[in-house]
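Q: I'm writing up a methods section and want to include an example of the input and output format. Could you take the sequence below and give the corresponding predicted structure tokens, formatted cleanly so I can copy it straight into the document?
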Amino acid sequence: MKKVLASVLTLIVITLMLSSCSNSDLSVNEESFEVKYSFQSEIENYDAEYQIVDNTLFGKGQNSFKVFGDDDSQYYNEWVEIASNVVHVDACSGTVIYLTDAGQLYGFGLCDGGVLQSEDSEDPYENFISKPVLLFEDCKYASIGTRFVVSIKNDDTLWFWGESLNGQSREIKEKILEPKQIAADVRYAEAFGYTTAWIDKDNSLYLCGDNSFGQIGNGESGCGFPTMFEDIVTNPYCALKNCVSFNITDNSTTIIAKTIDGKEYEWGNNNHTIPTVKTK
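A: Here is the clean output for your methods example:
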């Protein structure tokens, strides 16, 4: 009887240990998964609105880039259908990108700096693409910053195209038209302002590009002007370990990140130049 009881107790202990390990791993994976695939379904940009309803992308508002029709002076009060099978939409500075459920990334609107993988038009008033163009395939997430895009492929590699004058592609380049791989084993990534950020498989948060507001988190404060060379960081900096999520606030100058233990850190906006535990 004692041997049976001991065996049962041992089995319970082992089960609890396995359950504890499983739950620990699961909490990290669930949160990372939730963040990575929390697809954006609506956004406002350049006096226009875009929203996804039943996997169909609609737009309305100022027709600056002739997306809703040929008359660019017309304001559309009713929703206009743009594309189907859409799961995610993002926009910045007059450029819109959207991702389909087949992993195809499309873009339209203003095409400055090669953000739509095209050369600028000689006529600045015609420097836009009104019909969505295919930018990338086999991808599961994408984000757009100021004249550049980053996209995660299904193999967890991170790719870049567009303008990289602030080193957000890990290089200082005026224009990158052909998608370029900049990282591997990426769980989640965002483009914001002139900076790129991503979380890798080890839950380390890396940033590169503009540091004019201390948003890289490397202890250096910025001058507040993203064109200054001294505020450019081309070598990705690991700002935070054990990171499972982050978001951008204050007009792309502040980072708020969460770690596995549930703590929230904040830096940027030339307030904190290193991750600092956020006070409630």
